[in-house]
Amino acid sequence: MGVGVSIFILTLGAILKFAIEPDVFGDAVHMDVIGLIFMIVGGLGILLSVVLAPRRGRTSDDRLMHRENNPPEI
Q: Residue 53 class from Cβ within 10 Å (0-12 exposed, 13-18 middle, 19+ buried)?
C-alpha cells in the first residue's frame, strides 16, 4: 500500500468518524468505530511506506555499481 492509498484511507476514516452520525445505519453498524479503524490502518500504511521506501529502491546491482565506481580508500 503506497502513501497515496494510505492518505485516502486515513481521510475516509476521518470522514466516517467525524462527519457522519454514528448511528446512521442503526445499532448494528457504528460508523465512528469503522472510521477509527480506517484511520489507524491509514496511519500504519503511511508509517510503513515511509520506513520501507528506502529499502525497496535499492537492488544488489545498485550496490555493486556503487562499489565498483567508488573503490574503498586505503
A: exposed
